[in-house]
Amino acid sequence: MPTYGILSTGFNIKPLSAILADIQAVELSEISTALNIQADSIIGVLNGIVAQAAFDEWQALNALYNGMDPDQATDDQLTSLALITGTAREASIVSGIDILDLTKQAKSLPEQHFPTH
Questions:
Q1: Model pTM?
Q2: Nearest 10 degrees: CA dihedral of 19, 21, 24, 25?
Q3: CA dihedral 102, 107, 108, 113 (to 10 degrees)
Q4: Chain centroid to CA 52
Q5: Of 81, 85, 60, which Cα lies nearest the Cα of 69?
Q6: CB-based contacts of 19, cutoff 8 Å, min separation 6
Q7: Greater confidence, 49 or 79?
Q8: Residues 71-110: b if buried by 16+ CB within 10 A, e if exposed
Q9: How much is the CA Rg of the chain, to the nearest whole Å?
Q10: Are β-strands 5-7 and 10-12 bridged in parallel, bridged antiparallel, or unpaired?
């Protein structure tokens, strides 16, 4: 059973470290077990570049998957998801609250209402 991708619990992104390890394992088994795949070698640098590109794709797939979940979707994905049901997203509005200024009321009370020290 796969541990990455679409699972019964949702979408699980393959970590960058697992992608890199898979690339290195294939190189060692298919090319040579003596191949220098250290991060500072030419092949190691190329592996890092390719692994990062693959990881970026996993992140894009995750965004696509979450875009179809109303609890995960945001921005344009949420708007598009709402339109499937014919629900138009309302524009945002500026909101505010009224603040009661108790200092003005306290200043207007006669002095006998204030405790003395």
A1: 0.67
A2: -110
A3: 100
A4: 17
A5: 81
A6: 51, 54, 55, 58
A7: 49
A8: ebbeeebbeebeeeeeeeeeeeeeeeeeeeeeeeeeeeee
A9: 29
A10: antiparallel
**Which residues touch 89 (CB under 8 Å, ≥6 apart)?**
78, 79, 82, 83
Q: How far apart are CA 12 and CA 7, in angstroms?
A: 7
Distance (Å, rounded) from C-alpha 109 to C-alpha 117? Answer: 18
Q: Compute the average pLDDT of residues 76-82.
A: 85
Pairwise CA distance, residues 31 & 43, whole Å? 12
For residues 15-27, give the mean pLDDT. Answer: 97
Top pLDDT among 21 and 90 is at 21
